[in-house]
Specification:
Strand content: 5-15%
Shape: flat
Order of helices and strands: HEHEEEHEEHEEEHHHH
Length: 294
């Protein structure tokens, strides 16, 4: 977040390549959906590729400050899911999910208390990201007991992280990230389908995710992976528009960049897209021959 985003003109410019691929060619109203499910309507201006009227209310309503990171996840043509990471939890941002070098707040070991797990990270080199100290800022500590208690509602610590081989059935299947059990952040259907996907690879797909991501963002990645997998399995690929297929691919590529094991889904998606393309070509050829014969 820069001055133009949270202090001066209160506008957000969407990269032109993103606007060209995914946004409409006319001014529209888009919905910003925050992590609590609250919505804010914002005006999108296509000529300038920016969010205008309505963004000020969202920014001030969510106390956005200079240096905070905001992830915009395109859900629909006119809806973004918004994830916020405060400056206290990150050092630098670059790209869709951010190229970050986090320094966790001192992690508490007693039950009911948590360290800061609201820091998106992106691995740029082999091995774990280097952790650097963060500057002190004049805003509430994100690792306070009050914040942790509110944030961890429904999420609890685990005393051990089992290997996938120890999981015998869905009843013993637990989704753990950063030593936190995050099952409560997703539906039973998503958890069940995610278990099936993990079984197909004999591994937790999120096992090697970069550390420090927001737990709700991780749950969202898992849910989106399940949604794409369901669509691919049901054959929706052949009937889906190329724009939708592109969004699916970009989502999976972003997850893979964060070291989530979704390469097998990318391969399957490409296979089905190729089959659908070949089928369309066959139909076009048949119709062309039919017209010529008539």
């Amino acid at each position: 977040m820069l001055q133009t985003h949270v202090m001066e003109s209160f506008t957000v410019v969407i990269p032109s390549e993103i606007s060209a691929k995914y946004m409409p060619k006319k001014d529209i109203e888009v919905t910003l959906l925050d992590e609590e499910g609250e919505e804010q309507i914002v005006k999108y201006h296509t000529k300038r590729h920016r969010l205008g009227v309505g963004w000020r209310r969202f920014a001030t309503g969510h106390n956005l400050s200079l240096g905070d990171a905001v992830v915009f996840q395109l859900m629909e043509i006119n809806k973004f899911k918004i994830y916020i990471a405060r400056k206290t939890g990150l050092a630098a941002v670059d790209g869709a999910f951010g190229r970050l070098q986090p320094e966790a707040c001192a992690q508490k070991s007693s039950p009911g208390k948590a360290g800061n797990d609201m820091k998106p990270t992106r691995k740029t080199v082999v091995g774990k990201p280097k952790r650097l100290p963060l500057p002190v800022v004049d805003q509430p500590e994100i690792c306070s007991e009050e914040t942790d208690s509110e944030y961890l509602e429904g999420i609890r610590f685990t005393s051990s992280v089992p290997e996938f081989e120890d999981t015998k059935n869905i009843e013993s299947f637990t989704i753990i990230y950063n030593d936190l059990i995050i099952d409560s952040e997703m539906s039973k259907h998503v958890k069940s389908r995610y278990y099936e996907l993990c079984c197909s690879q004999n591994s937790f797909l999120h096992k090697n995710l970069v550390p420090g991501l927001n737990c709700k963002l991780v749950a969202g990645m898992i849910s989106e992976t399940v949604n794409i997998s369901d669509a691919v399995r049901s054959g929706q690929v052949s009937s889906s528009s190329r724009d939708v297929l592109q969004v699916w691919r970009k989502s999976l590529e972003a997850f893979e960049h964060l070291d989530m094991n979704v390469g097998f889904l990318l391969t399957r998606l490409d296979e089905l897209v190729k089959m659908a393309s070949e089928s369309e070509q066959a139909v076009d050829l048949f119709e062309s021959k039919k017209r010529r014969s008539n």
